[in-house]
């Protein structure tokens, strides 16, 4: 008889994730200074609706309530990020203790409820002062295209580790450095909004360097029991057809989406095809001797963030990416490939982000990372979907999200059966929040947030996910017309 439930391993972490700028608010309190996202969101035309993260979910004042929500849902882990400008307002020098105290209190509250804190050091909120510094201006910065920013990050990592290392055992250096480099400095749809393909590649290298230096700083400050990793957003890239031209398009995007980070971090190299593809953009002289020894650091885990696959073909003419899921821009986030590769919408139903739903991409990535980093445990550090959630009669029913989650958790389970060492799953996101350039128009949360009143309402998906977390089991299938919980 076929077992009706899919069982996950004992000790599997069932979590949810957030990011500081997306939920905290309190942007001018207790010494915090602007980040690049404060500046970007206050620039007219950069964020839909003119939305900003000034208040967001007001988590800076409502964090106890949010931890209670996690506890009531029975989740065993919470992934959050530390606001760099809240802790180190200028991006250099001593920490602001009031900023660290906020995270000390948050972590203590999580531990008091039996929830494992999973700390991310960088989720895109670079201190504006580091971005504003002019290139070549001495030890200043100039954002991620400037080498000094990597050293500033390592200093920040050491400060946070010194303050929270006695409480937090799971540490992530960077979240989705691809977005920081290629959306922030290539297409310009993310902060700081620059559109320079050479700067995007410099930023990618300096993020790799920051990761390596950050791991070294964490290892120097943390107790031996601490686990250190990184969260990448690898792309499950698929060719539109098996033609040689489309396979080459797939290779180009795989190099820019995936191997530009996994090469330096896991193997200590930039692949020859990546260097050749981008030779017309940069000569890579910003890679100094010894850098790739630093970028390749032993890791205790790898985080995989996944939402939807990418389907590519050889471009049939100029015009850059289409349907690549990274926002509309006249500038490509793919240096050296923007006019050679076309993006196509994958088959399947769409989320509110216009992203196709395809759980097989998650399983494929978990197996690919298992092969690339044998012996390194994996976590799904982000996975989720936005839908047009609306409260009705005091409740929020979101069966589409439940179907999305069920399909992707089943994919994780299949990866486990095929040998992937997946230790946990962090759903994106605990709360509806500021969704970057989309403002407040897209809702990813398990918990509905009324932004006028800040009232939190767990959705049907939250109750369903709570049952999965409590049992450690997933129904093998869902009713075709799932009514909600």
TrEMBL record:
Keyword Hydrolase on entry: yes
Entry superkingdom: Bacteria
Catalytic activity as recorded in UniProt: Hydrolysis of terminal, non-reducing beta-D-glucosyl residues with release of beta-D-glucose
GO cellular component terms, semicolon-separated: cytosol
Pfam families with a match to the protein in the record: Glyco_hydro_1
GO terms (BP aspect): cellulose catabolic process
Residue numbers binding substrate: 22, 123, 175, 307, 428, 435-436
GO MF, any single term: beta-glucosidase activity
Lineage of the species this protein comes from: Bacteria, Bacillati, Actinomycetota, Actinomycetes, Kitasatosporales
Protein name as it appears in the record: Beta-glucosidase
